[in-house]
Amino acid sequence: MTVPKDTYPVEVAGVKRNLPLFSIKPGVRIAILNILGDTELVQAAAKALAEKLKDRQFGILVTAEAKSIPLGYALSIELGRPYVVLRKTYKPYMGDALRSETLSITTGSPQTLFLDEKDRQLILGKDVCILDDVISTGSTLQGMRLIMDKAGANVTTEAAIFTEGDRAKWIDIIALGHLPVFVD
């Protein structure tokens, strides 16, 4: 027997989902968006974000591993612009990778983002859009900004499927919607 979970209904570009609520600390829950394997939602979100981003000044999309990778790929196809993935673990083939620390709300522990040496030349001196699936605390966004600064790229645009929490914090983010934080 499966115990039903509390959910929060959302709609992204006509695609409806019920997001499970997840406790991040006593009395505080967030709705979890997991787009991995959800091709229908990813495609709908990419088309809608592409429409909002088409006239923005940037040449490269940059996202962080892992859940936003499908969005980065689909948006890259929609816009006809390349994308770069910042990795969460260093591999020897990544060479002289740049790194930045971040704290994810969903994992609750520090993480490191790495920019592969091969991608450093691609973004050097370029205007970039940093992209995430959900922007909650802004920690991952800040980690991506730090790496872009170290790499000599210019962040001109920031985008996500959803922002979360204090809506006033995210007025400069191009997003398709906003998720509340649930306080019991």
Protein traits:
single chain, 184 residues, alpha/beta, Rossmann fold, four-stranded antiparallel beta sheet, 4 helices
Question: Can you put this structure into words, describing what you see?
Answer:
The protein is α/β, with parallel strands linked by helices and 184 residues long. It has 4 helices and 11 strands; from the N terminus they run βββαβαβββαβαβββ. The strands form 3 sheets. The chain has a 5-stranded parallel sheet, sandwiched between helices. A 4-stranded antiparallel sheet has the order 1-2-3-11. A two-stranded antiparallel ribbon has the order 6-7. Strand 8, helix 4 (139-151) and strand 9 (154-164) form a beta-alpha-beta unit. The mean pLDDT is 91.
Major sheet summary line: 5 strands, parallel
Looking across the biggest beta sheet, what order are the strands in? 5-4-8-9-10
Total individual domains: 1
CATH class group: Alpha Beta
Task: Kindly report how far apart the N and C termini lie.
Answer: 26 Å
| Number of separate strands | 11
Low-confidence stretches: none
Mean pLDDT: 91
Architecture per CATH nomenclature, i.e. the level-2 architecture: 3-Layer(aba) Sandwich
Helical stretch tally:
4
Morphology call: globular
